[in-house]
Amino acid sequence: MKLQDVDVAVIGAGPAGMAAAIKAKEAGAKNVVIMERAEQLGGLLHQCIHNGFGLLYFKEDLTGPEYAHRFIEKVMDTGIEPLLETMVIRISNDRAVSAVSKSGGYINFKPRSIVLAMGCRERTRGALNIPGSRPAGILTAGTAQRFVNVEGFIPGKKIVILGSGDIGMIMARRLTLEGAKVEAVVEILPYVGGLIRNEVQCVHDFHIPMYLKHTVAQIHGEERVEAVTMAQVDDNNCPIAGTERKIECDTLLLSVGLIPENELSLMAGVKLDPITGGAIVDETRQTSVVGIFAGGNVLHVHDLVDNVSSESELAGQSAASFAKEEKPLERGKIALKGGRNIRYVVPHTISGQKDVTLYMRVNHPEETVRIKVGDVMTKALRVVKPSEMLKIDLSTEELKRLGKETKQIIVDCEKREGR
């Protein structure tokens, strides 16, 4: 492939990148290339050997590798060029891309459009400021997942998990099945940070103790973790004196949130949303830089891979349209803003001229609510939680009711009567 003839360049070959590349090819882009720093397509799906993938997208219950395999086959069948072991080191605001490759050396080219699909990374101990020494045995839940499921290595025998994210709860079950003893799952918030199905299937069903409104206040040990001190927290998330409890363990897993990988985005001049950590986009998933699109966890952290694929397909289709027409797509002029109990809304702007799907999260759990978009009342919900992303479909007819002169729409999570 002549790199100067690339129509769409996709950075990242996880579920977002593969879905975007496939859709771009199907939408008419002649030359589509995927750049991936790992040695294989699929991203982190290969280490997610549990089921629960594909329930929405394929209407089947698949494991992570099975879900990845279906997209990998599509990538190969559609003639998309994968550049593996290729690290993108620079993107400019005029869409010039520089990368280094084990086989190709230094690569420099300029595609007609770019899709950002770099995913996200885990928050580490350095962001938490936990007092204590720096012994071995402290690692993120995702790293532990790779050790167990890919490398065949058990990180420890007596384990405490800080945070109740989905990967943390899944690893609580996985390590229990492998013979380790999970002493506790410790969560600083008054509610669980992951999906309810993982809370039930991975923690409660295996009788693993979970402590809400608690945190790890001290790490003990010099060469290896020997114990941690757990304490209850107040409304300001500060440990309460007198509630400390020491738990002996040899491993501390951290499942304390994900951060979108947007260093390349910033290099290209893309404006980021301080709440999501991802790019500010319109309904086509075009960023503030013309011709650069974003989708998946690099845009905002999803809890279901099915939604990652669906959203990234939109980014891929928009990138193909831009590459073919070689002119800016019309940007939405209506801004969306979170109101009562709505933390953020993606996309950030819409045109109001076509059907659109809104993704959002709430600030805190609430029961018996209804999502209100401007003056349009949408579906009623029995319960909403910050850990479960809301997906609201708006038709053109509903958008017309908002008025032609509307410049900003407030999205609220309102209380309602009844069940």
Offer a quick outline of the entry.
By secondary structure, this protein is of the alpha/beta class. It has helices spanning 15-26, 64-77, 141-151, 166-177, 196-203, 263-267, 305-325, 396-400, and strands spanning 8-11, 32-35, 51-53, 62-63, 81-83, 86-91, 97-101, 105-109, 113-116, 120-122, 138-140, 158-162, 181-187, 210-212, 214-220, 227-232, 245-248, 251-254, 258-260, 292-294, 334-338, 342-346, 349-350, 356-362, 366-373, 376-384, 390-394, 408-415.
CATH fold field value of the largest domain: FAD/NAD(P)-binding domain
- What would you report as the Rg, rounded to the nearest angstrom? 22 Å
Helical content band: 10-25%
Report the total helices. Answer: 8
Q: In total, how many domains does the architecture comprise?
A: 3
Structural class label = alpha/beta
Distance between the termini: 59 Å
- What is the count of β-strands? 28
- How much beta, percentage-wise? 25-35%
Largest sheet, in brief, is: 5 strands, parallel
Describe what you observe in this structure:
The protein is of the alpha/beta class and 419 residues long. It has 3 domains: 3-121 and 258-325, FAD/NAD(P)-binding domain (3-Layer(bba) Sandwich), CATH 3.50.50.60; 124-254, FAD/NAD(P)-binding domain, CATH 3.50.50; 334-415, no CATH class. It contains 8 helices and 28 strands. The protein has helices at residues 15-26, 64-77, 141-151, 166-177, 196-203, 263-267, 305-325, 396-400; strands at residues 8-11, 32-35, 51-53, 62-63, 81-83, 86-91, 97-101, 105-109, 113-116, 120-122, 138-140, 158-162, 181-187, 210-212, 214-220, 227-232, 245-248, 251-254, 258-260, 292-294, 334-338, 342-346, 349-350, 356-362, 366-373, 376-384, 390-394, 408-415. The strands form 8 sheets. It has a 5-stranded parallel sheet, covered by helices on one side. It has a 5-stranded parallel sheet with strand order 11-18-12-13-14. A hairpin with a 2-residue loop joins strand 25 and strand 26. The protein is globular, with a radius of gyration of 22 Å. The model has no long low-confidence stretch (mean pLDDT 92).
